[in-house]
Amino acid sequence: MFHGAYANFAKLKVDEKYFINIKSTFKIICELEKVSLIDKPNSISIENIKTFYIKDYYLITRDKFNGSTKHKISDFLVSCGHINKGRLENRDLYSTQNSYKSYQYYNGVKIPKDLFHPIKLGINDTFFSDHFAIDNFDLQSSIVIQY
Known about the structure:
The chain is mostly beta strands. 15% of the residues lie in helices and 44% in strands. The strands form four sheets. Strands 4, 6, 7, 8, 9 and 12 form a six-stranded mixed sheet that branches. Strands 1-2-3 form a three-stranded antiparallel sheet, with no helix packed on it. A two-stranded parallel sheet has the order 5-13. The longest helix has 16 residues, at 113-128. The model has no long low-confidence stretch (mean pLDDT 94).
């Protein structure tokens, strides 16, 4: 077992402390709350973002587990070292650096590559040994990043 992950049995202990069958997962949601900038421009561009601050990551499953199909995994990703706990005024959020400063397409939508990276390593590599086994990725945010 690795931080609540039983890869051989495709079981993951989600943040609410119950297990789901990871093979039932068909979608990932990332709730982006805010960003920190390198400089202070009028608009937010990918090259100017220093850190992404995430409210939560969720796995969406076809089957219900513990009465729900939406399962929070942010604490799991922290325990694996793929995202960090926010600090100071961002202590209720999670953070990840904008290392790639580039986009990737998910379902035809351009999304910052660094937001999918924790899923690529924490979920896809752990359970499927394939970076893009689950790539139905939905970014929910009111932040508009200029292209």
